[in-house]
Amino acid sequence: MTSRLHPLLRDRRRTLVAGSLAVTAALTLAGCGSSDPAPAGDSSGSSGSSAKTRTVDTANGKVEVPASPKRVVVLDSGELDSAITLGVRPVGATHSASEDAFPSYLPASETKDITPVGEIANASLESVAALEPDLILTSKVRDGERYDELSKIAPTVMTEATGSAWKENFQVHAEALGKQAEAKKVLATYDTQVAKVTEALGGKEKAAATDVNFVRFVEGAEIRIYGKQNYIGSLLADIGTGRPAITDKAKDGFSYDVSPEKIDLADADVIFTSTYGDPGKAGTTKTMNSGLWKGLKAARNDKVFKVDDRLWIAGIGYTAAGKILEEFETLMTK
């Protein structure tokens, strides 16, 4: 498992300026919690009352959390997906640096009342504290440096990283939210859908004989040929598709970065592509109109599929996975 920042956010992560006044304000707000907080979501399936606590093993050791948390704040897209998937509507959440809205693949009815608390990896402590949370979900790779400040606001459950560890992270989120029973149902549904997609491809042998690549165009960076140690790589592994040899050269298993002049290295039977940022500035349009791109096997055979970056790359959860699997099956069998 590889610890990496979400692509591009690692380049845009800003240093948090939190002076003594900001921290004091955050702690003051945290200490003024209502005795009757509004529910963060459906609490069915939870054990005990909000007055009791449970112990959760986290990346920062054991953390005492409410047995039935009511006001949850999530600080990354994976945590947001987990909460919504498990039937919990957070009171606050971060958004990506490129957009002010929450991911559109999530039901609008479940995100419309969530209060934005800043960008991923740069949440506002004051905004978080103002929501009077009783639980915060995030990861060390996003907010490790601010664990002390966050934990003074509310019990903070951190996983180590994001991306390829998304399944393990989901289990931690489920335990923190008291939703282990619901989590088992989610996993069963996912396994059933994966098997269905593999069968739609012609079975395990045919799926394994089809090399699939994922190419991401990123504004301000080189083109990324995704390896196997990331969210989308794990989905392809579950389906059982083949992966081109170039994926074994990915740095830390995450991605093999190339210039437009070397895009021929991305060749595969099937190529999925997405763009982070403006397609013109990311080089998507220019590269895909080039002779090198048009000469790729996938391009010649009309097996290049453009997909939504916020779903396929940034979703990092079971709700996103369900939609990706559905779209993958449709595109691969049309």
Q: How are strands sequenced across the largest beta sheet?
A: 6-5-4-3-7-8
Q: How confident is the prediction overall: mean pLDDT?
A: 88
Classified in CATH, the superfamily of the largest domain is: Nitrogenase molybdenum iron protein domain
Shape: globular
Radius of gyration: 21 Å
Listing every helix as H and every strand as E from the N terminus to the C terminus, the arrangement reads: HHEEEHEHEEHEHHEHHHEEHEEHHHHEHH
Which parts are unreliable, with pLDDT below 50 for 5 consecutive residues or more? Answer: 1-50
What profile does the largest beta sheet have?
Answer: 6 strands, mixed
List the helices and strands and how they pair.
Blueprint: H1 9-12, H2 20-30, E1 53-58, E2 61-66, E3 72-74, H3 77-85, E4 92-95, H4 108-111, E5 115-119, E6 122-123, H5 125-130, E7 135-139, H6 140-143, H7 147-153, E8 156-159, H8 166-177, H9 180-200, H10 204-208, E9 212-218, E10 223-226, H11 231-239, E11 255-258, E12 270-276, H12 279-282, H13 284-288, H14 291-294, H15 297-300, E13 304-306, H16 309-312, H17 318-333
Parallel strand pairs: 3-4, 3-7, 4-5, 7-8, 9-12, 12-13
Antiparallel strand pairs: 1-2, 5-6, 9-10, 10-11
Keywords: Signal, Transport
Pfam families: Peripla_BP_2
Main location: other
